[in-house]
Amino acid sequence: MSYVDAIAQRFGDGGPSAEGVADNEFIRRVLARKTARRYSATMPAESLLDLLVAAALSASAKSDFQQASILRVADPAKRSAIGALFPAMPWIGTSPVFFVFLGDARRHALVQRIGAPGVDHQHHDVRPRAAQIDLRPGVRPVQRPRIAPQARGHQLFPDINADGGKLFAVWHDSRNDPGYSVQNPPGNATAKDANGFHLPTVGLDTFAASSSDGGGTWTQTRLSTRSQMPNYEMFGDRRVPFHGDYNYVSSVDAFAFGAWTDTREVRPGDDPRYEGGEGFDVFQCRTAGADGSFGPDTCPNAGGLDQDIYGAGMTP
User: How far is 86 from 170, CA to CA, in rounded Å?
Assistant: First the structure.
């Protein structure tokens, strides 16, 4: 199939002409890709399944962390139970093999335990990533000291920079969260309201650390002057919380400037479409229809979406 034919079938509105572009089999196969979701009863070879899983875990991931686990559900009863939750997806119970892809930050922590350098994204400590890793058999990577070892709090979204013999790191930290628990995301208390929603907490901060000896020792400081609540439902028609990983630090010699996502200026509100969950809702303006449904938010610039980028300078 030519580029032109594949593009016409895919987009139906002309699309790019691909004029003068050399033929590339991989690009043609991507353009011609189809999803059938109809399966025979033939069971693939186990060796092929293992190879496909390895290929899936070789796909691009942020910072190459590969924070996912692949679970194969083989029990027919369990597959049927899962399939019953999704009537529009009957292949869950009928395909010969069914995999569930799970977000799993624990994988990176496990890599840490065998001595590989990196950044622990689970909950406890931030470590600098090594520029080079010696992969010779029998050679274990050098285990760098933890930047900010804490018995309490999640540490997430780190960034690190080096210049002039100085290291600077910036990250979000929930050590001051009054509702902190290993089991809870930052900004969520264990206690729930009458409708079953977790109560909100305000306790996410931005911390930084600097090192003048190649990461041997670190000095910490709190950059944020106010704690924030990171789970305001600002996206997905005001139903979905999203706190962007926009933390960044840049340095020249002994001076650095760190920037981070901050919701301290978000205007809280109440979503009239459901009861409970107050504290996560943002200010919004909706009109109820005769049938009880609500229209769109007509005041998106009234403060409910005021997620900002803050910054601060630092020296060792």
Answer: 42
Please give the distance of CA 192 from its chain centroid, rounded to a whole number. Answer: 25
- Report residue 108: phi and psi, to 5°: -70, -35
Please check the confidence at residue 238 and state whether its pLDDT lies above 80: yes
- Put simply, whether the predicted model's pTM sits higher than 0.85 gets the answer no
Output the six-digit token pair for 20: 């003068």
Predicted local distance difference test score (pLDDT) of residue 114 = 53
Q: Position 103: which residue type?
A: G
Residue 232 CB coordination number (10 Å):
27
Amino acid identity, residue 193? Answer: D
pLDDT band at 112 (very low <50, low <70, confident <90, very high): low
Residue whose entry in the numeric block shows the structure tokens 């190459």: 64
Q: For residue range 19-61, list pLDDT tens digits in order.
A: 888 888 888 888 888 777 788 888 999 999 999 988 888 877 7
> Hey, what amino acid is at 24?
N
CA dihedral angle for residue 44, residue 48, residue 54, residue 59, rounded to 10 degrees:
-80
Cβ distance 25 to 32 under 8 Å?
no
Classify residue 202 as left (phi > 0), alpha (psi -120 to 50) or beta. beta
CA torsion angle 142 143 144 150 (round to 10): 180
* Straight-line distance from the first to the last Cα atom of the chain, in angstroms, rounded to the nearest whole number: 61
From the number of C-beta atoms within 10 Å of its C-beta (0-12, 13-18, 19+), residue 204 rates as buried
Give the start-end residues of each E strand in the chain.
68-72, 99-103, 155-163, 166-173, 188-192, 198-200, 205-211, 219-222, 248-252, 255-262, 308-314
Please tell me what DSSP assigns to residue 62.
G
- For the record, the structure tokens of 250 come out as 């840049």
